[in-house]
Design brief:
This protein is an alpha+beta fold and 308 residues long. It folds into 3 domains: 2-60, RNA-binding S4 domain (Structural Genomics Hypothetical 15.5 Kd Protein In mrcA-pckA Intergenic Region, Chain A), CATH 3.10.290.10; 69-161, Pseudouridine synthase, CATH 3.30.2350.10; 165-271 and 292-305, 2-Layer Sandwich (Pseudouridine synthase). The chain is 19% helix and 27% strand. It has helices spanning 14-21, 27-35, 108-115, 149-160, 236-243, 292-305; strands at residues 2-4, 39-41, 44-45, 57-60, 79-82, 86-91, 140-146, 165-173, 180-184, 187-189, 197-199, 204-205, 208-217, 222-229, 268-276, 283-287. The strands form 3 sheets. Strands 5, 6, 7, 8, 9, 13, 14, 15 and 16 form a 9-stranded mixed beta sheet that branches. Helix 1 (14-21) packs across helix 2 (27-35). The longest helix is centred in the last third of the chain and has 14 residues, at 292-305. It is globular and about 70 Å long. It starts with a strand and ends with a helix. The mean pLDDT is 91.
Length: 308
């Protein structure tokens, strides 16, 4: 993996820069990579505290030893669409997208290795074959998977320039008064808890979320919204909504547990995904229906609004 240091990153520590620019690598894991001399700057070994200079080229070698333990597993996936280049998967709530942090079983990748072995892009190695982007474990909905390297590169470019259409349905706490809301606050690692993200102007990236109110449930003090991502930062919707005072129902990381809703994890569903097909060069869009548990909760909220 190769990273280039831009002017805005000059002076940052080497380890901090990697944390901010590479998803799914913990600070301790990055430190081990540096200590094991698997990270170089301009071809030379550097320490974690090395101060970056403009145009530095950082190379990161991810060891392959753990990847051999990723096993193919016969786990059913809801595949909405498939051709020679892409797969569209409707992921269920509770499934992890790819192995990480000691969790090497039961993931979407384990399933893909069983059903599509040797038919996925190799860009992210054997631990994340075909994975172009991801959604959180407890977020349900649509993902695109690349079946070859060309498709992977074309899709990654679209994600990079934020041209992908991504719309989510979220149930949030409180009543949002505005019909629409544009949230534009940068997101980076929390200085208080490195496992969490936060709105911060230090070591962060631009993050924009557009909110449209779909339904206000006054009797339950919650609001159903459509959240459109202009950027795609880790936990972006969850962080932004918590920051503006409307954390997602069920989100105990960025909000508090609500005993009224007996669910595990946030009520967030990736409903719409649209992009330019990597070889057909035409725009395609897919939609995923809300899962049954989500519909049941909305029905109960509707009944309470009617006084039933």
């Amino acid at each position: 993996m190769e990273l280039k240091v831009l002017n805005v990153d000059v002076g940052k520590r080497l380890d901090n820069f990697i944390v901010q620019n590479v998803d799914n690598l913990t600070r301790s894991y990055i430190k081990n990579l540096i200590d094991d001399e698997l990270v170089t700057v301009n071809g030379k070994k550097r320490k974690a505290g090395y101060s970056l200079k403009e145009n530095d080229i950082i190379n990161i070698q991810i060891p392959e030893d753990k990847e051999a333990n990723i096993k193919a597993e016969d786990i059913k996936l809801n595949i909405m669409y498939e051709d020679d280049d892409i797969l569209i998967v409707d992921k269920e709530k509770g499934m992890v997208v790819h192995p990480a942090n000691g969790n090497y079983s039961g993931t979407m990748v384990n399933s893909l290795m069983y059903s599509h072995k040797d038919k996925l892009s190799s860009i992210n190695g054997t631990i994340r074959p075909g994975i172009v982007h991801r959604i959180d474990k407890d977020t349900s909905g649509i993902l695109v998977v690349a079946k070859n390297d060309n498709a992977h590169k074309k899709l990654s470019e679209q994600f990079k320039v934020h041209s992908i259409t991504r719309k989510y349905i979220a149930l949030v706490k409180g009543i949002i008064k505005e019909d629409t809301m544009d949230i534009d606050y940068p997101i980076g690692r929390s200085s208080k808890d490195r496992k969490k993200m936060a709105v911060t102007y230090k070591n962060s990236k631009e993050a924009k979320t557009h909110i449209k109110v779909l339904k206000r449930f006054y009797n339950s003090n919650v609001t159903l919204v459509e959240a459109t991502l202009e950027t795609g930062r880790t936990h972006q919707i969850r962080v932004h909504m918590a920051y503006v005072g409307h954390p997602l129902v069920g989100d105990e990381v960025y909000g508090k547990k609500d005993p009224r809703f007996k669910i595990e994890g946030q009520m967030l569903h990736a409903k719409t995904l649209g992009f330019i097909h990597p070889t057909k060069n035409s725009y395609i869009e897919f939609e995923s229906n809300l899962p049954e548990y989500y519909l049941e909760i909305l029905k109960k909220l509707e009944n309470k609004e009617k006084g039933e």
